[in-house]
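Ex. 9. Protein: Histidinol-phosphate aminotransferase.
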Amino acid sequence: MDFVMPQLAVGSRADAADGAALQAAGIDTLLSLAPLARPAEVALQLGLAVADRVALPAATIRAAAAFLAARIAAGHRVLMHCEQGISRSPALAACFLHEHLGLSLDEAFARVRAARPQAEPHPALVASIRAHYAGADGPAVDLAGNENPFGPSPAACAAIARTAARLHRYPAADSAELRDALARRLGLAASQLVIGNGACDLIDLALRAFVGAGGEVLIPDPAFPAYRSAAARVGARVVTVPLAGSEYSIDEYLARLSPDTRLVVVASPHNPTGTLMDPAAWARLRDALPAGAVLLLDEAYRDYAEGRALIDAAADVRRGAAVLALRSLSKVEGLAGLRVGYGFAPETLVRRLAALCPQYHVGSLAQAAALAALEDETHRRASIDANFRGLEMLTAGLTRLGVEFVPSAANFVLLRAPRDALARLAERGVAVKCMARYGLPGHIRVSVGLPAENARFLAALGELLREDQDCRDAVPA
Ligand SMILES: *Cc1c(COP(=O)(O)O)cnc(C)c1O
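Predicted structure tokens for Histidinol-phosphate aminotransferase:
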């Protein structure tokens, strides 16, 4: 058996049948394209039946890459079993190296060949793979939603599967177990925690509980549109607080505080700039709050800012400050589709939020998945580390292209874009976020994706810039 990367080996039928050797190599997962009995030492096996022996359908490449990504992100080692001569499994391993390490296809095939010289993929097989990545049926790349490109926490998925059998029962009405677990992590009391259907649900509750019709809310500009839409739903009066360039200006906030202020919104890291509010500036704002006002800190991207100077809102809450911090499981934990997030604040504020929630507000799948995801340190670590590498790759690429961008502490980058960038990137199969709704025409926001996705975005952006350059060169002086 030959390792093409520390977590992925390619081996023969005999290798795949040798449970003791697999165990000695730390391998607990098999991926095979041919029928194969699973040795007892192997915890999980995926069999992908492929009728065509010298070409790989796009669906097989996608399924294999997604399976490998999830298992490897969760800390497992995988053996891909390969029949001699046909070499579809080594070719699939090359696909994975291409997608996840950002190697070109040639580099990926060379890496596999170096580890396993006898694997010589049929030319038709190589052609089918090149067509998949180059052609119209290549996977579209979605870098618009700031989602975790690695997928959901596998532990959360397993918890959902376990909980599904009990879906005829109502969920814990007060999410007690989840609130206890969060309280322990944060050094707070469970009575200081509130669970919502995503952070957006809690933003809505905060506007309803603390602001209401005619009340005044301070919202940074530009910002995540959910604050404004929540304010509009309750008929609140919005006072916008401009950023200074891409950074927060605390003086702009202080100048707008008044006895009418009910809620002040801050996001750190901020969306769409990816910048942080300085903890000292935050403390000034907190200490200047008028009586009865609440300071909301949206920390949906906090995990990605690891290693930076971050606001300690839990300490503020412990000291009784009128602070509500919001966090989401939609980002690092990869559960955006499930809708679960939480907030923490002094108990008096939490009670006012909870009073607006109907009974059985948060479903049992969301509660169970959140509990499991918070414990899934492997997925969290892998996701954050991959994001650091992806950010580096994107920012190095943008610098090379001479594109102006904002250095980010999150999993996305705001950049100045060429004309019609959204449509022209879409033609090349790359979706990014339009910034018109954020009041930033001429900009786009791109999420950090898998290495191959980042590479595809940079290649497409490079094409746009060269096209525009050619147009300018073609205009007679
Ligand atoms: C993505 C995001 C959230 C998360 O919202 P959910 O409702 O938990 O999915 C919250 N705030 C900001 C600024 C975001 O970008």
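Check your answer against this statement. The pocket of pyridoxal-5'-phosphate is lined by residues 146, 198-200, 224, 267, 271, 298, 300, 328, 330, 336, 341 (CB under 6 Å).
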